[in-house]
Amino acid sequence: MLQAIRRLIKEDGRVILSNWQFLHSARLRSRIQPWERAGLSDSEVDEGDYLLDWRSGGKGLRYVHHFSAEELSGLAAGAGMRVSESFLSDGENGRLGLYQVWVPA
To answer: What is the reported pTM?
Structure first.
């Protein structure tokens, strides 16, 4: 998908990403569940993959991937882009959203 985006944007174009940084919240970290609840094991998922208890209105599980700034930089490079800006914002502690601007490399 990222390579397709790179092909579609102009040389002076920008891609703006927002990534949820739930690990920066003690309340959200407390919702992390073992993969066994979904019939999986740790060896069947990737590093950074999490299963959260999402109890809104009843029982529910939510799969999420926690992207680090380093992981995103690698993905940008693999798609022929680079990170031109990166910052944290939002939420209870001002660190629940990782925002990045990608430009063609």
So the answer is: 0.86
Specify whether the CB–CB gap between 51 and 37 falls below 8 A.
Answer: yes
Q: CA-CA distance, 10 to 104, in Å (whole number)?
A: 8
Predicted confidence pLDDT, tens digits, the chain (105 residues) = 999 999 999 999 999 999 999 999 999 999 999 999 999 999 999 999 999 998 777 679 999 999 999 999 999 999 999 999 999 999 989 999 999 999 999
Retrieve residue 56's tokens. 């809104």
Q: Residue 4: which residues within 8 A CB-CB, separation 6 or more? A: none
**What DSSP line would sit under the chain, residue for residue?**
-HHHHHHHS-TT--EEEEEE-GGG-HHHHTTEE-GGGGT--GGGS-TTEEEEE--TTS--EEEEE---HHHHHHHHHHTTEEEEEEEEE-STTS-SEEEEEEEE-
